[in-house]
Request: fold
Amino acid sequence: MSRRTARSGADTGPGAGPGPAPEHERRRPKRRPWRLVVGLRTRLVVTFVLVALVSAVTATALAYREARTAVLQRTQDAAVSDVRDRVASVAADFDLPPDQRTLARFAARVSDGLGARIVVARHRDLTAVSDAYADVEGRVTTELRAAVRAGDGARFQRVEWRGEPYLVVGTPVTYADGDRRESGLEVFVITDLRAERDDTASLLASVRTGLLPVVVLAALLALLAAGTVLRPVRKLGRATRGLAAGDLSSRVVVKGHDELAELARTFNETADALQSSDARLREQEAKARRFVADVSHELRTPLAAMTMVATVLDEDADQLPPDAARAARTVGAETARLSRLVEDLMEISRFDAHAVRLNAAETDLAETVRASLALRGWTDRVEARLGEGPRAVVDRRRIDVIVANLVGNALRHGDPPVVVTLGTGPGPDGPWVTVEVADHGPGLPPEVRERVFDRFYKADAARTRGAADGGGQGSGLGTAIALENARLHGGTIEVAEGPGGGAVFTLRLPLRRAEGEAE
Reply:
C-alpha cells in the first residue's frame, strides 16, 4: 500500500472554546444580618471590613475563574494538538477497512503515544478500546459522537463521570490524496483532569487563606481612619453639649482645611453669634427689670399721697352730691388697685433679680392657713379641712400670700363651696405637704390651665384677674407671684379639673423640719 497522508481537521466548530465551567464553584458562607450597629465608629469599621471583604471575595472569584480557565484551556489545547498529531501519525500506516483486531491495535498505538490515555476507535459498527477494562460508557457522549461525525475537525467536551472530571477529544480521520475523503474512522481520547482540578482547588484554598489577613488589616485601617475622623467629631460633640448646658464660651479648636475643620469653624461662629445675642438679651432684660423697679419705686411716693387723699374723699363721700360721691369712691378703688399693682411689680422684679430671700422658721401650717383665712374674713365662706396639720420650715408670710391668692381666686371666680384641704404624702425625695384649694365653679379649659400662671394673663376679658389680697380687682400678677413663692420653697403649684367640676389648685412643698426633730 502506498504511503498516504492522514490529517485531522482544524479545531473548529461549536466545541472549540474552553466550554462551560464545571460544578467546582466556591460556595460563599451565608453572612448573618447585623442586628444592631451603633455608633459612628462601629459603622465605619463595619463598612471598611465589608468593602474589603467584598473586594477580596470578588478578586478571589475573578482570579480563580481566570486561573481555572487558563489551566483548562492550556490542557485542552495541548490534548487536542497531541491527539491530532498522534492520530495523523498512526493513521498514515493504517489499512481500511479494518477488522476488530486491527482496530484494537490502532487504538493501542494511539494510546501508547499519548501517555497511556484511554483511546476509543470506531469504524462503522466496530469499536475498540485501548484499555479492555476501561468503562467508556458515559464518558464518550452521544452529543460528542454526533459532533465528530458531522464535523471536519477535532471536537472536545468536558464531562464528569462518577464524580471525577474528564476531557474527551474526538476527531474523524480523513485522507488527502489530492482530494479530501472521509475514512469512516473516528478516534476518541479520554484525558483525566483530576490533576488540573486539584491545582485549581489548591489555588482557591491559598486565596481563601489570605482573606483573613486582608479582613484583619482592613479592620485595623478602619480603626485608624475612624479615630482620625471621630476625634474632631467627639470634640465637637463635647463642645455642643457644653453649649446646650449653658456654657456659651464653649469652642472647638480648628485644625486643617477639610470638611470637619469647616464644620468646627461654623460651630465657633454660631457659638459667637449666640453668645453675643445672649449678652444683648441679658442686658436688655436687666434694663427692663431696672426700669420696672425704678418706675414702681418712683410711683410709691405719689401713690401714698393719692391714697391719703382718696381715703379722705371716701370718708366724706356721704356728704357729697351723688355724682361726686360716686367719683370719689371710684378714685379710691382705682388708687388702691394701682397701689397693689405697684407692690406686685416690685415683688416680681425682686424675683427676677434673684433678690428674694426666705425668712424660714418652723411653722404650724394648719395654723398659718387658718390665720390667713381669718385675716381676710373668709372663715365662714370657706370649708377648711386642716386637722392638726404638720409642722414644717417655711416662710410664713409667703405661705400666707399663696393661700390668699388661691382662695381669693376660688371665691371670686368659682362657686361655693370652696374647700381648703391640708395633707401630706410621698414625694420624689421624701415626704411632701399639700394645700389643695377646690371650688365648684365652671372650672378652667385646658388651654387656660396651661397659661394660668403667666403674668397678666386673663382667661376671659369679662372676668377680673386674680388677686393676692382677696378684695377688689387684682393686679394680674397674683398667680405668678404665688408660683414664684412656691418655687422659692422648692415646691410648685398645680392646677387641674375637679372630679365634680370646678378648678383645683394644689400647692406642693417639701416637708422640711427643724434640725434634730424626729419625723
The first helix runs from residue 40 to 91. The two ends are 134 Å apart (CA to CA). Confidence is low (pLDDT under 50) at residues 1-37, 461-473. The chain has eleven helices and 13 strands.
